[in-house]
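Researcher: Let's continue the batch. This sequence belongs to Calcineurin-like phosphoesterase domain-containing protein, and it's 288 residues. Same format as the previous ones, please.
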Amino acid sequence: MTMLENVIHRLFPRRVLKLVIPGLVLLLLYGLAARSGGVVVERVEVPLPGLPAELDGLIIVHISDLHYGFGRFRSEDSVAHMTWLISYLHPDLIVFTGDLLDRSADPALADTLPLQGLKAPLGVYAVMGNHDHHFGKEKIARSLADSGVEVLVNRSVRVEKGGRHFWLIGLEDPLTGDPDLARAMAPIPPGDFKILLVHTPDFAPHAASAGIQFQFSGHSHGGQIRLPGFGALYCPPLGCEYPLGLREVPGSSTRVYTNRGLGTTVLPLRLFCPPEVTLLTLRSGSGN
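Model: Same format as before. Here are the structure tokens for Calcineurin-like phosphoesterase domain-containing protein:
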């Protein structure tokens, strides 16, 4: 036994070390989790083949998975800072990709307006997620609509900027609903630029097959708890192939962005996976 080991054992008997070391590990994990809890603004430039030149520079804020009623977001005041932050970013368009409420939330919260105050020149649009269906699609859709958010359920809207238009498509949640992409795309002329909102990111191959250029999703929380060198400890169904960030669907030019979400579920903590507000700037072109 070295001199250093002798000193350690004299100062800290074995029974003390058995208590101290796990406590230090827990304290470290708590500190890392606390640091992982601050909302991060991810600024991403997305080159998109086929994007009309007039739409180059289109700025979109993407948010997802608020899970209102669980964890840090339990009152409208707790969401106010996030709303202010998004307003400060001055986007052209805001999109929300589902899970407004957490399935464990008080059902009375379905009648509240956590996203009120969000505004953008081209509008604020949303789709619903699997947790939202626990409260009834109609209730969540009404909460969003009363907040000034237009809900897209298997339909599309024509959005115009700078004299050129594109289409925003929204689908029902693939896990708990009946997404109908053909119905949603029926009004869209061939060759028009298309952006899809759908809660589950692993829907992306279907989007690519339909000729959609860009998909926004959430659902996975990026794993919520990640370990360096290992990644996510868990990913939900339809959230494993495209768990976070910007990816390209193999064999296509379709890109998908998966937002890590704002809230949490099951466990009210994150680790190496901070909550996210995404500021995306669309660019004409095909670069990486």
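Researcher: Any comment?
Model: The first strand starts at residue 40 and ends at 48.
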